[in-house]
Each structure stands twice: as structure tokens, then as C-alpha cells.
Amino acid sequence: MSVVTNTTTIGAIEAPSRRNTELALLAFAVAIPVFAYLNVGLALDGKVPTGMLGYGLGLGLLAGVAHLVVRKFARYADPLLLPLATLLNGLGLVLIWRLDQSPRLIRLAELSYGVFSPSATKQLMYSALGIALFAAVLMLLKDHRILQRYTYISMAVALLLLILPMFFPARNGAKIWVSIAGFNVQPGEFAKIIIAIFFSGYLMVKRDALALASRRFMGLYLPRGRDLGPILGIWALSILILVFETDLGTSLLFFGLFVVMLYVATERTSWIVFGLLMSVGGAVGVATFEPHVQARVNAWQDPFSCYATDGACQQIGDALLSFGSGGTLGTGLGQGNSDLIGFAANADFILTTVGEELGLAGTMAFLLLYGLIVERGVRTALAARDPFGKLLAIGLSSAFAIQVFVVAGGVMGLIPLTGMTMPFVAAGGSSVLANWALIGILIRISDTARRPAPAPAPSPDAEMTQVVRP
User: Does the N terminus or the C terminus of the chain have fewer Cβ atoms within 10 A?
Assistant: First the structure.
């Protein structure tokens, strides 16, 4: 009996298995939000909501399209990334729809804008556009290594996206929006992906020089003075963003992403120490003379001391009260009062609805879903065969993790408020589009990393079979 070892055949068997696993997980990722939608409707009106069938079919159709695209164009990709993103997106739609039913928010919108426009409908449309962008990334980006060619072009585009909001009016104290023809875009959401591409290409070339140390101080290997230039430049740019746009979230994300990727590329702990010291120093310095940042710092330190006079303090105070009233298991979907926070209830503070209505258990479940996405991204980085792919996967995963941390930390009172949106869950078209594109790139890297390597061409005199004796 003869046995032929063929890695291509093994890979062909494994690929359908991954996709079938993904399809089964997608069924749960659609069923859970539909059940949550039903739960909210029963809690609010005591009957099955009329839009449940349409919502379930719409979410199922979007998930099915995304799955077919992955099955066709990334058959070896990680089977968990798409179901996790779909589940978070679906639960976010339910939470936004639940807040749309609040009489307080409807009345607030009518007083502020003269008309109430349901956010859930717009969010479903943005989710469909996000799936379309996700499909476009997989169909057009055949190999992630192509992005390495555009290292410095991506730097120019990222800088343009970060600087552009300076020329538009501030909203809620921060200049993070660009308004064109009635459409509001948050460029920082897309900039995080483009910055990760630039950092990956740059550090792949410069990592050996940045890893060199000139002296040792207090157990740390200090980098050479001339190699401090990149981190000083990025630090200065993040401070400028914080000063001119009063955007603490983007500043932390931008600088934190660079420091994490620098550490991964060089394996020097000293870069982490320098990064943390410079980040804290810059934030403290700006907070001393920038009123908007100072107000958020004051609200973070003691929200109840200025609860009646400062909107930032009131938001944080209401959020803490919501988390406290939720307890361990929560009040139940549709039975909380997190809508008291006001216009930010379905954006920055949507996590407070989770904390109040699903309790500590539900909040930990959401954070676990985010953690699983980050873990699969890191696993993809470990599996990648090329240095650029490793750095890009870890950069995208780090950007995602940092954003979750600064949003959840701000809402829970761990750090000052940042004004960023919770990925996939909060209302906001820019956030949904950018994060679906991020998942698409991670899936492309995962597919390339797990695709079986082509078998080497056999020499003419090589044996093609191995004889196995019984």
C-alpha cells in the first residue's frame, strides 16, 4: 500500500471545515440578537415587535453575504472573526433600537432638531455599507503585502485625515468631524487603519536600528539619541491633535498604537516606558491650559462635585449610577434608565445600557467578545509568514484593543472621557465602516497565513510515494 503526502490536499479538506464552522457560528451570531430584539419588545410593549422579522432577515442576509465572500475569496481564514463582528454589530443594533424607543430621547431630539430620526434605521444602513466595504476589501486586496508598497503614501493620507477636522466647527467641544453635503464623517476612525499600514512598513525597515541601545539605566536599555526622533515626532503630533482638536481619544490611540508596534518590532521594554511617560506628561501639560480637556479631567476625578454645573460631570455621574443600578445580572433589556444620559446614550455611553440592563455579567460578556477579536488578531500575527503581515495584524489588533479600552475606561471612570465610539456597538457610520474594513484586512492576513504553502517541484529522480509495509 502506498501513501502520498500532499499538503495541498490536506489544506483543501481543512478549508471547508473552517467555513462550515464559521457558518454554524454565524447562525448563533444572528439568532442571539434576534432573541434580544424580541426581549426588548416584550419588555417595552408586552408584545412581539413588528420589525423583528425584517430585522432578523436583514441581519441574516448581511451575514450570509459576508460568509459567501469569505468562502470564495478567503477560504483558509480564521473562522471566528466574522461571527464575532456580526454578533457585536447585531447586538449594537438592538441596543440602539431600544434607546430609540425612549420617550426622553425622542423629546430631546425634537427639542434640539425639530424632528426625531431613528438611529437604528441609519445604523442598519451603515452596517450594510460596512459589509459591502468588507467584501470589497477581500475581493480587491488579493495579498496584504501589496499595502507595503504604499508605506509613505499611507503616512500622507493619515496625516491629511487627522488634520482635516481642524478646519471644521467643533461638535460637543471637540473637532473630530468633517461635514460635507449634510454627511458627517469621523476621519480618525479610518486613520487608525492607514496609520497601522504606515507603521508596519516603516518599522519593518527600521526595526534593527531602533532596537539598538546605547546605555543601560535603572535596568532599562536606553535607545540611541538619534533613534528617539520617530517617537518624539509621533508624540509631538499626538499633542498637536490634542491641542488643536481637543480630541483625547484619537491622540491616545495614535500614540499608543505606535508605542505598541515599536515594542513588538524591537522587543525593547524601554520604548514602552518612554511612551507611557511621554503620554502622561503630554496629557497633563495640555490639561493645564485646554478648558475642554480640563473639564473632562475634573469630571473624571470627582463627577459628583460638579454634577449640577458641568455636562461632562453629569454624564459620568449618570453612567456610574447606571452601572451601579445594574448589579450583577442587570434590570433586563428595555427596563433600564440609561437614556437619562441624553444625546450620547447611543454613542459614547452605550456601554452604560449594557451595564444597567445586562449587569456585570453582560458587560463582561461584551468585553470578552472584544477580547476574542483581539486574541484572534494576535493569533493571526503569530501565524503570518512575513514581517509586514505580522506587524500589520498586531497593529490593527492593538488599535482595536486601545479603542475599546479608552471608550470603556472613560465610561466607567477609569480614565477621562475620550469621545470615541465603541466598535460595532455604538451609533456612528464612520465607526462601523472602518471596523468592518479592519476585520476584512485581518481576515485577508489570516487567509494568507493559513493557506498551505505550495509543494516544491520534485526532482526527476525523487520518489513520489512512500511504501508502507503492513
Answer: C
